[in-house]
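Recap for those who missed Tuesday's class. We walked through two folding examples back to back. For each one, the amino acid string is listed first and its predicted structure tokens come directly after. Nothing is annotated here on purpose, so try labeling regions yourself before you check the end of the notes.
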Amino acid sequence: MGFRPVDVSNKFETIRTAKAEGKIYLSPESVEMIKNNQVPKGDVLSASQMAGMLGVKRTADILPFCHNIMIDHVVVNTQLQEDGVYVTAEVKCIGRTGVEMEALTAVSAALLNVYDMLKAFDKNMVIGDIKLLEKRGGKSDYEEDLSGLKCAVITLSDTCSKGEAEDRSGKTAIDIIQNEFGGEVVHYKILPDDKDLIVKELKDLSDRVDIIFTTGGTGFSKRDVTPEATKEVIRKEMIGFSEAMRIVGIRFTPKSLLSRGVCGIIGDATLIVNLPGSTGGVKDNIRLVAPLLKHAIRMAKGEKKH
């Protein structure tokens, strides 16, 4: 089995922060040397702060699975205590992956620098208590699966409905919904690109399922009527979802701007998500919006205000 970092290309760019701490335990003599600025190599606390900041910048060079990221802010604090030096680090960036490893590396580098500057005088130094205190901005702050939700998948395609082509996009959607997000697909259907049939199907499923995923029919041809059918039945449009699907989609292909997909709420709290007809578009867009759909349902029911 080979090694590879996590693919974060389809994640949102958010403000990521992380805080970490650690300590190096010193002899009373070493503490006095630092306090009285008697260490030959110089100011231990200031130098260790610099070492921590350098450690943040080189984290990806040390740890093979860490991504190269643009660091926006770093604060490393070193505090002399009666039994050693206590170090904290806070790291911040706007990105698609967290900065907890950078914060932990900052603390580790700072503590190692203390060790290096005192190793000639203190043979019993111990580095310990390195831990992550806090991380924010990642999927753990907002991401939920689809467990406990009933889902429907409807493929809109003239050729698939006639049996002239295999419905790969619908099957891809079912696989991701069930196997990656734990949702239950209780309804699956292939329909032609007929607005009246689509409207009837959407209305029939209203409040019988939690989420309706449609695939196909979002393009520019005269037969592409999925967005029009969706707009006819929804009571509120979820504009942010469809905007994000197009904006993030251009990272993979500029053709995502050609999708007219709509997302909205029908009935009490059934969500409709229009997906493109390509398997790649289905994969990227479900993985993008699925973590927020439970929250959207609670909001539609009036259970969440924010």
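Example two. Treat it independently of the first, because the proteins are unrelated.
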Amino acid sequence: MEEMSFWDHLEALRGVIFRSLGAVIVLAIAFFCFMTNIFDSIILAPCFSDFVLYRSICNLSLYLSSISDYLSILPDFCGDNFHVNLINIQLASQFFIHMSTSFWLAIVFAFPYIIYQLWSFVSPGLYEREKKNARFAFVIGNLMFFIGVAVGYFLVFPLTLRFLADYQVSEIVPNQISLDSYMNNFLMMIFIMGVVFELPLLCWMLSGMGLLTRSFFSKYRRYAIVGLLVLAAVITPSGDPFTLMVVFLPIYMLYEVSAFFVKKDEPETDDIESVYDAESEDWSK
């Protein structure tokens, strides 16, 4: 391959940046045009009692109750009139939320294309083994991020919303939730879950650098369970054990899945020598 000069690399990088920005701008314009439908059917869907998670818990609760009264341990999501009324208290807030939400959605959905553009820029300078590892990281990283976003949207945020929207420190103080507050919590929780689900990829990278081995997960499993329970309690500050476990289990599964991406411990030198001596002794006999 012909060696590229500094200015050739700079020109190639400029092309990557322009193509990435173009993809973000095109998606942002598309999301901006359809933002009203997106808000009504997707973003604000957890504000109503017919949300898919609420109906699923209701159906599961009815099924368990039909088997035995002792299995009726789920929250009562059946027959309720749950509804969150959002208000706007700033003049230009709705317009800026319209713009910013379109932009952030564009970045999220253009992220795989942006990473692919960066990959096309750096891949000519990598060895074949490095290219293979980078492809693996690209696929797993994007897959786990979107799985985390889905868990945040369908599970974590709706349960947190139901608890916080109905919680009152006093009956004299009614809840009036602003659109800004709703969107800040919505985007933050979904983004946090997307980042948390990158844990297996992070462990794989640390293992490749020799900083993490599989014995770490078995050694600190008890401490991890306690820490993840605290994290789940912070994410969903509800006294309901079902809600706590619903949030805890996916995060704990990440901990166990991460162990499979980490290299096994290498046998110590003393162990290798003992095995060698035993084999030598058997051979001499």
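Answers for example two:
The two ends are 59 Å apart (CA to CA).
The mean pLDDT is 81.
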